[in-house]
Amino acid sequence: MNMNRFSLITILVLFAILFCTTCKKEDNQPIKEENEEDNHPVKIEGLTLKNFPFIDGSTSTDPLVRIIAGELLGYDYHWLPSLDHSWYIQTDLPKGFVEQHLKSSQTHYAFINLINKSADLILSARAMATVTIIKVVRRKVQAGRVALNE
């Protein structure tokens, strides 16, 4: 019985060593077909830098917004370490496009920008407080910028 246990442990250890030493980081990359022109498989026909929606959101969703824009428009992105040992996304998207179309105004202001039509879409990790929505709508109604249907 001890011999079977020893054999099993030996086989498991050898398998673990073999498994951990045969894979390189580059081996995990998807294989690109010879005739494949683009490594960004997600596309929306007709979507360009000029007609891309204005996206705002919470600061926590900023990397996701940049990845989505990069994937949809065919630009690469890279995770890079910052000086404080956190990570950030660097995209190959044009700087002017990022500054104009991809905002991270924080959750509250992203919702305000959506309500004010300064943003077409927002990504947020949490919902906006109902009280804030009511205050914004009330101000717009009082200013005559929103008509309420009865």
Task: Give the key terms.
150 residues, alpha+beta, two-stranded parallel sheet, two-stranded antiparallel sheet, 4 strands, 41% helix, elongated
What's the short story on this structure?
This protein has helices at 2-22, 62-73, 95-101, 107-115, 130-142, and strands at residues 55-57, 77-81, 87-91, 121-123. The chain has 150 residues and is an alpha+beta fold. The protein has a domain at 55-124.
Q: Can you walk through the features of this model?
A:
This protein has a domain at 55-124. 41% of the residues lie in helices and 11% in strands. The chain has helices at residues 2-22, 62-73, 95-101, 107-115, 130-142, and strands at 55-57, 77-81, 87-91, 121-123. A hairpin with a 5-residue loop joins β2 (77-81) and β3 (87-91).
Q: What separation lies between the terminal Cα atoms?
A: 83 Å
Number of strands: 4
Kindly report the average pLDDT value. Answer: 77
> What is the CA-atom radius of gyration, in angstroms?
25 Å
Output the helix-strand order: HEHEEHHEH
Provide the structure class: alpha+beta
Proportion of strand residues: 5-15%
The number of distinct helices, counting runs of at least 4 residues, comes to: 5
Sequence stretches where pLDDT stays below 50 over 5 or more residues = 25-36
How would you characterize the largest beta sheet? 2 strands, parallel
Q: What overall form do the CA principal axes indicate?
A: elongated
Q: What is the spatial order of strands in the main beta sheet?
A: 1-4
The share of residues in helices is: 40-55%
